[in-house]
Amino acid sequence: MLTLTENAGRVVKTLAENAPLTPGLVVPDDASALTSTAGLRISSSDDNGFEVTMTTQPQAEDQVIESAGATVFLEESAAVALSDAVLDAQIDDQGGVRFALGKAE
Q: Pairing state of beta strands 50-55 and 39-44?
């Protein structure tokens, strides 16, 4: 199962808490409900990579991972591909987020 570093957990949780401010993200009328259901969604892309998006809730077949108050939704094929991976995240000086995947030890 995908695991999150402490730093990734903090970053994902912060992104979810600020999701109502994310351009293009459709939020429910009750924005307070968003922070309890929002998460980072990782899905497989056509170029054998992964897409990472913030979303208000998982898709029906998503695997849900909760760690340190953060929620990650994994699309089925991404869950299989990342079953032994570790997700890390960093925020740069301009506030941009960079995610990195590594092998679990």
A: antiparallel
pLDDT value of position 4:
94
For residue 25, what are the CA distances in angstroms to 3, 21, 31, 55, 102? 25, 8, 12, 7, 28
Q: Model pTM greater than 0.90?
A: no
Q: Report the mean per-residue pLDDT for the chain.
A: 83
* Of 3, 2, 9, 7, nearest in space to 68 by CA: 9
Quickly list DSSP for 35-101: HHH-EEEEEE-TTSSEEEEEESS--TT-EEEEETTEEEEE-HHHHHHTTTEEEEEEE-TTS-EEEEE
